[in-house]
């Protein structure tokens, strides 16, 4: 045994494996086999010690015996899968119990594989390598999803800031005085960030106290009396929430007005209106506090840094705009600031005519589209519909949406850069109309989202390697529970006979290579017959017809699949000088199918139909396809069968079964 293992071409893996068995001989043997291959091995002679070992230092994989005195292997696995900290650790059962029901029970308790004692060391190593690789791929998928989610959150926050900034800037510029401008700001901020009530406090002419501005916002009419009362109040520097914000020039957040530590003076009037949380933000220009904005919410809300950054960012820009209303000099400074924002923005900013010509664009947009300057881009793109979009219909779809809703957000398309390279962009835009409602032009922003789209595509490909496409789409849509009932499904189980002896003659690399040849051929047959592969369990293969999407004649497709699988094994034996045989079982009936697992997803089937199909395979004859009575009744007019007779089926008693011989001429 030592000589065979030393000759293997296996790269040492520093994975940590816990071996659980109450028999010292088994522990020593498995420890020796694994340690020789570079694995870090820990042992536990009982189920309880195993759980304590996992709690103190979680391993990468567990080899778990079933028959132990204190806690059996099923109970240990059940405890591991019930704990969020250990649910993702793959568990391979290794036991002398060889019945199909024992294996099914092991998988029901969360095992990922099942090895029957006495075992072949090479088979153990091959299966361990396979499960560790699967776990590595799953962890890679999780990291990619987390990175994608973080990027999307940052993108959404940036877009929200830009939209709110653009909306407030445009709205304020159209107002005739400061109070009207403040009322517009309060309304936009409250609606965009879900505040119920907003006020603005402005220094009086002498600059001694703060007075409440006539411009305010209330989510309903019940706030009118509250605002009327505040119009009679004044606050000196450092007095109450408003005065403290004025003197300290800092944002202040109060979670609960009823808190004894609150600096809010006389909160009773606000509490009668149901207001609980308050945010005070100073608008500062040239070291001078021009305005203090206060926002109130009925729901008690803990400090939200993102919210503060968003509102404070808008307030920072408003300082220049409010000062502009007071002096001509500030008007000039505000124009320069706006121009700087546009020219230095990461996102492209543009204006286009309805018939597809650019009126203006910033440098960022020209860079995204591959031009050296906005002027070159405007001259080069004379017809946006035919020159820019890969799908020329996207321009018309964009126009339809923006004209219907006066705005469009997150409109994603593929476009051609100047060098004909294809990239993905996301557009946010709105219509600009004259006083009669006629559209003058569209204006908006463009972001290059190519990296995000590529990451999404990669994530989808990884999911499709694990789950059927319809199920993967439902999972990406964040459907919490995926479980469906199907009234008529064909289920096929196939098992390689003599695989254990066969594996003992091969190195792990050779074994995996040959298994891959066989199962890859089966995968191609599955695709050809329009069926759905569910899983492989060691040297067993499971495929179904009629789900997750209904399929006509799925029973005939599964029968043809079985015949083709037998032919594929025959071809394999001829080409590789082997003597493997395939035992196949088929049943038809209702099943329940769904996704199980939190971190390592699997689409699986349950029900008596599945159990009987498995028993058809285990009680079949090597090289034959054994089917139930219902399969025979459904297919006898299209296929040739031979009655096998009454066969004792565990858990079902005697059943009349048939052998599928071929397609009827």
- Structural classification: alpha+beta
CATH superfamily of the largest domain: Nucleotide cyclase, GGDEF domain
Alpha carbon gap, first and last residue: 52 Å
| Helix amount | 40-55%
Whole-number total of structural domains: 4
The count of β-strands is 25
Q: Would you identify the regions where 5 or more consecutive residues have pLDDT less than 50?
A: 1-12, 328-334
**CATH second-level architecture of the largest domain:** 2-Layer Sandwich
Number of helical segments with 4 or more residues:
23
**In this structure, how is the largest beta sheet organized?**
8 strands, mixed
Structure description:
With 665 residues, this protein is α+β, with helices and mostly antiparallel strands. The chain has 23 helices and 25 strands. The strands form 4 sheets. Strands 18, 19, 20, 21, 22, 23, 24 and 25 form an 8-stranded mixed β-sheet that branches. Strands 6, 7, 8, 9, 10, 11 and 12 form a 7-stranded antiparallel β-sheet that branches. The relative contact order is 0.07. The model is unreliable at 1-12 and 328-334 (pLDDT under 50).
């Amino acid at each position: 045994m030592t000589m065979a293992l030393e000759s293997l071409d296996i790269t040492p893996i520093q994975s940590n494996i816990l071996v659980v068995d109450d028999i010292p001989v088994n522990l020593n043997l498995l420890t020796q086999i694994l340690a020789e291959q570079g694995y870090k091995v820990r042992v536990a002679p009982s189920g309880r010690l195993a759980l304590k070992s996992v709690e103190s230092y979680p391993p990468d994989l567990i080899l778990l015996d079933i028959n132990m005195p204190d806690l059996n292997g099923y109970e240990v696995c059940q405890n591991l899968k019930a704990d969020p900290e250990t649910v993702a650790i793959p568990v391979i059962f290794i036991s002398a119990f060889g019945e199909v029901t024992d294996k099914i029970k092991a998988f029901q308790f969360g095992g990922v594989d099942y090895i029957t004692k006495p075992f072949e060391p090479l088979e153990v190593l091959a299966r361990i390598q396979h499960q560790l690789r699967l776990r590595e791929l799953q962890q890679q998928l999780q990291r990619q999803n987390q990175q994608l989610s973080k990027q999307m959150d940052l993108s959404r926050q940036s877009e929200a800031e830009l939209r709110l900034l653009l909306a407030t800037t445009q709205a304020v510029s159209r107002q005739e005085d400061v109070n009207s401008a403040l009322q517009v700001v309060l309304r936009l901020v409250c609606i965009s960030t879900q505040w119920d009530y907003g006020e603005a406090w402005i220094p009086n002419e002498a600059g001694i106290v703060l007075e409440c501005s006539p411009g305010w916002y209330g989510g309903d009419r019940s706030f009118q009396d509250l605002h009327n009362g505040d119009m009679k109040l004044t606050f000196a520097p450092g007095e109450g929430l408003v005065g403290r914000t004025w003197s300290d020039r800092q944002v202040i957040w109060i979670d609960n007005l009823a808190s004894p530590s609150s600096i809010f003076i006389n909160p009773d009037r606000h509490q009668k209106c149901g207001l609980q949380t308050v945010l005070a933000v100073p608008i500062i220009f040239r070291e001078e506090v021009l305005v203090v904005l206060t926002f109130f919410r009925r729901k008690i809300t803990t400090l939200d840094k993102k919210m503060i950054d968003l509102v404070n960012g808008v307030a920072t820009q408003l300082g220049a705009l409010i000062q502009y209303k007071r002096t001509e000099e500030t008007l000039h400074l505000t124009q320069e600031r706006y121009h700087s924002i546009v020219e230095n923005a990461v996102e492209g900013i543009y204006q286009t005519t309805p018939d597809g010509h650019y009126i203006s664009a910033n440098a960022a947009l020209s860079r995204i589209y591959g031009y050296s300057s906005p002027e070159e881009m405007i001259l080069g793109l004379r017809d946006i519909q035919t020159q820019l979009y890969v799908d020329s219909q996207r321009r018309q779809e964009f126009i339809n949406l923006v004209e219907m809703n006066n705005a469009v957000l997150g409109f994603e398309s593929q476009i051609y850069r100047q060098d004909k390279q294809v990239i993905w962009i996301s557009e946010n835009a709105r219509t600009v109309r004259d006083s009669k409602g006629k559209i003058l032009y569209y204006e908006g922003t463009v972001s290059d989202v190519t990296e995000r789209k590529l990451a999404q595509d990669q994530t989808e490909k990884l999911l499709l390697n694990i789950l059927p496409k319809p199920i993967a789409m439902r999972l990406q849509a964040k459907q919490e529970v995926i479980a469906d009932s199907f009234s008529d499904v064909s289920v096929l189980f196939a098992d390689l006979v003599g695989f254990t002896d066969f594996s003992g003659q091969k190195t792990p690399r050779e074994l995996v290579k040959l298994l891959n040849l066989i199962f890859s051929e089966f995968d191609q047959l599955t695709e050809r017959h329009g069926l759905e592969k569910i899983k492989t369990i060691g040297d067993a293969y499971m495929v179904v017809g009629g789900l997750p999407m209904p399929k006509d004649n799925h029973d005939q497709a599964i029968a043809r699949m079985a015949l083709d699988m037998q032919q594929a094994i025959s071809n394999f034996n001829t080409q590789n000088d082997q003597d493997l045989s395939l035992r196949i079982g088929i049943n038809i009936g209702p099943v329940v199918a769904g996704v199980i697992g939190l971190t390592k997803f699997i689409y699986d089937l349950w029900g008596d139909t599945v159990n009987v199909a498995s028993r058809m395979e285990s009680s079949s004859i090597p090289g034959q396809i054994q089917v139930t009575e219902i399969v025979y009744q459904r297919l006898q007019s299209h296929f040739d069968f031979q009655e096998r007779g009454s066969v004792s089926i565990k858990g079902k008693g005697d059943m009349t079964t048939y052998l599928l011989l071929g397609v009827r001429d």
